[in-house]
Amino acid sequence: MAPPPTPPVVAPLVKLVVRVLTFICLLIGLIILTTNTASIFINFAEFKIRFQDVKAYRYMLATIVIGIAYTLMQTALTVYEATRGNRIGGQGFLLFDFYGDKFISLLLATGTGAGFGVTVDLKDQYGAITSGYDKFFDKGYAVSSMLLIAVLFSAVSSIFSSLSLPKRA
Amino acid sequence: MAPPPTPPVVAPLVKLVVRVLTFICLLIGLIILTTNTASIFINFAEFKIRFQDVKAYRYMLATIVIGIAYTLMQTALTVYEATRGNRIGGQGFLLFDFYGDKFISLLLATGTGAGFGVTVDLKDQYGAITSGYDKFFDKGYAVSSMLLIAVLFSAVSSIFSSLSLPKRA
């Protein structure tokens, strides 16, 4: 006789809430980052800075976009699990979640590190010349902070998927 | 009757090798980072830059030092496990390894992100004025790269400690 299916270690609803919170943080970060520009005027000449001008911000954008795509996919799968009571792909997909969550949390961690790292030093550099770009870099801090919170939530997802690994023989 | 002890999922020797490789990468990074200075001369005036002048490099140093302390401790525990055949603290410490490895791999990931992020943009900025600091920032890349390799090894340790989690009831 086949053994009865074991109940999931973490309730699908809890997993879903954590995924949605990750998604919201990444989305807010994406909006602040992609709308971030600043201008200063020196002798009627306009000097404009956009987020694309800072290479580390472009990298941060890449990690956010990858994070959003992955989190959306996992959210859809978790909704399916919560409504149907079982996971698409069954036990085999638990390993996919395990490695995927680990990779995405590490990727987002490099993104937030890059964001904070470049902002603190560039703000110092530009701040010595003009205070006109201060708001631009403050928004850089805001994006990095949203990404840091997303890292924490994705780490929680990673803990959940580790605890949900199939029992070893 | 007590059940016979289960053999470890990952051989202690394999775990030990990964810990030692993590340690070596961090140590090389530490040496390159802390000895990194550069000087340029403009009209007999010396302009010196040291790693402490870049705040993101100071953060990178902090993550490397914490990573070395943790990895040394884990190396000692793994040597004990490899020679005595059982882990200090027994099964209870498996959870400590699990959360510790997850945290350290994420911390090191933010460190390498900060290192690469600040280096790419500061090298651009200074490079527009002088090429005298190019070597300084190239060493910044070298440290960030060693830290990135350390992240990969610590992620492997984190996978091992996840797979070694006690079976769920």
From TrEMBL, chains A, B:
Q: Mind listing the UniProt keywords for this protein, alphabetically?
A: Cell membrane, Membrane, Transmembrane, Transmembrane helix
Membrane-related topology note: Multi-pass membrane protein
Give the Casparian strip membrane protein domain ranges. Answer: 13-152
Enumerate the InterPro entries for this protein. Answer: CASP_dom
* Transmembrane regions listed in the UniProt entry: 20-44, 56-73, 103-120, 141-163
Per UniProt, subcellular location reads as: Cell membrane
Name a Pfam family for this protein: CASP_dom
Query: Which Gene Ontology cellular component annotation is one that this UniProt entry carries?
Result: plasma membrane
**Superkingdom of the source?**
Eukaryota
Kindly report the protein's main subcellular placement as a broad class: membrane
Subunit record text: Homodimer and heterodimers.
PANTHER family found in the cross-reference section? CASP-LIKE PROTEIN 4A4 (PTHR33573), CASP-LIKE PROTEIN 4D2 (PTHR33573:SF40)
Family membership, please give it.
Belongs to the Casparian strip membrane proteins (CASP) family.
Name of the protein: CASP-like protein
Q: Which organism is it from?
A: Daucus carota subsp. sativus (Carrot)
